[in-house]
Amino acid sequence: MNRLNASLLWLSLVLSPVSGWASCECGDDYCVGDVRYDTALKEKKSRLGKSGYTTELISLLDRADACYAAISLAPDGFSIMTVSADKTVLILEWTKDNARIASEQFASGSLSRYFVFNVRKAFSCCGSVRAEDRPDWDGDLSLNRGQAIDCTQNSGSACK
């Protein structure tokens, strides 16, 4: 009888999720509440800060869904989306020079809008609303505006 109990105990430990890790139907990386999320977010923010990105840019990561995959799959950089007066969209790597140029073009009227973001389309963790079904989805730009800085209404360091 003791051997049977020991075998059942071992089997239950092997088949159960690791203590503290979230478990959901989408896989551990996509579960909100996974214990790896906070560490992954902190490490990514640290790497980006050491790469010279501003606090304003790095804080965009806080707008993402709170699962490990949303952070681990996010780019290690940022982008600028410019929208010209004729609605032409251009995506550029965020650099201080590109931000300055976009700011100057907006001031001169050659750009109607411009945005800075880490991810253009919101990542959906398990159980989250799809990016396109969220209230901040801009179908014309294919952009979740809630995860972007609208530089036409912001004079922060990310926009100039």
Overall description:
The protein is an alpha+beta fold and 160 residues long. The chain has helices at residues 2-15, 36-50, 55-58, 68-72, 96-108, and strands at residues 79-84, 89-93, 111-117, 137-138, 143-144, 148-150. It has one domain. The chain contains five helices and six strands; from the N terminus they run ααααββαββββ. It is flat and about 50 Å long. The model is unreliable at 4-21 (pLDDT under 50).
Describe how the helices and strands are arranged.
Blueprint: H1 2-15, H2 36-50, H3 55-58, H4 68-72, E1 79-84, E2 89-93, H5 96-108, E3 111-117, E4 137-138, E5 143-144, E6 148-150
Antiparallel strand pairs: 1-2, 1-3, 3-6, 4-5
Reported for the largest beta sheet, the result is:
4 strands, antiparallel
What is the oligomer described by this structure? single chain
Helix content: 25-40%
Q: What is the number of E strands?
A: 6
The secondary structure category is alpha+beta
Stretches where pLDDT is under 50 for at least 5 consecutive residues are 4-21
Helices and strands, in N-to-C order?
HHHHEEHEEEE
For the termini, the CA-CA separation is: 73 Å
Taken from the alpha-carbon principal axes, the silhouette is flat
Strand coverage percent:
15-25%
- What's the structural domain tally? 1
Radius of gyration, in angstroms, nearest whole number: 21 Å
Strand order of the largest sheet: 2-1-3-6
Number of distinct helices: 5
Mean pLDDT across the residues is 86
Keywords:
160 residues, alpha+beta, 4-stranded antiparallel sheet, 5 helices
